[in-house]
Amino acid sequence: MIPVIKIEGNSIAEVWEKSLLELWKNGISIKTEYDRKNDPPSKDCTMIMVINEPFSEPRIHLAFPGGIEDLEKYRQEVVYGIHDAWINPEEKKWTYTYHDRLTNYHIPGKEEKVNQLEYIINKLSETHFSRRAQGITWIPFYDPFTYDPPCLQRIWCRIIEKEGELFLNMNTHWRSRDAYRAAFMNLFGLTELQKYIADEISKKISKNVKVGQYVDISDSYHIYGESFEDFEKRFLTSLKKRDFYNPDHTKSRTLKTNDPVAVAGFEYGKQLIEMEKKTGKLGTLF
User: Fold this and answer.
1) Does a structural domain hold residue 285?
2) Assigned domain for 286 exists
3) What is the per-residue pLDDT across 4-63, written as a single tens digit (0 to 9) for each?
4) CATH number of the CATH domain containing 190
5) Which residues of 221-240 are buried (b: 16+ CB within 10 A; e: fewer)?
6) How far is the CA of 195 from the CAs of 43, 55, 110, 185, in angstroms?
7) Which of 9, 195, 198, 254 fits as disulfide partner to 58, beta carbons 3.0 to 4.6 Å?
8) How far is 194 from 31, CA to CA, in rounded Å?
9) DSSP assigned state of 10
10) Domain that holds residue 53
11) Rounded CA separation 86/121 (Å)
């Protein structure tokens, strides 16, 4: 059987770290369609991550395979669609972005398009407790035949009221996820989208809507065999040598978003985005 693992905690850094440890310990070994000849089987499970306070600090985990500038680029990709123009499957470039699917969902060859984010915002502005505020990415007669179908399948949002305050809860459902190389950036970007939706609803109803619980469900949450060596050297070693949080970032495996190192990384990411606009150079899609 495929193990079903549930992890719960406050921050995205805490929950991501715990999820990898449980996957590494209890996941099954199974082949993937992308294995090279000598790659060991992947570690895999079905994962449910419950993050109670998505913007609690420290928010950044330093052991994810990327830089802080990549988090800023991915945030703008998911929330503002800065890379939507890079979709061009005919030239073997991107087949989708999550932002495009959520704001510009359409059947290839058809003119009608649907802005699902706009629908979610309008629906919850009118009826906070509606169960219909969702958006999907999958196009069933198109995506199964592409070389890079979307991993994120659906987002679902609902507002709850607690002690007179409104909180936007969001669930996301993924068919497949690279737990080590992609999941942390996904958590960072999708919770930023959650905040964007909450802020937009706040504007429409003239009442503050806070970011509530974030629940992340992956059917296949995996570490590829080709990543094992890097995972052990980077991730597992950091757990042995560094504190979960230490104000001295050289001794910490997490970082607060207002730390000068993080602020500088975000600013560098913004500069890279401006360079990309000028050069048209493609980045990496997670």
Assistant:
1) no
2) no
3) 999 999 999 999 999 999 999 999 999 998 888 888 999 999 999 999 999 999 999 999
4) 3.30.572.10
5) bbbbbbbbeebeeebeebee
6) 32, 9, 32, 15
7) 254
8) 34
9) S
10) 4-279
11) 26
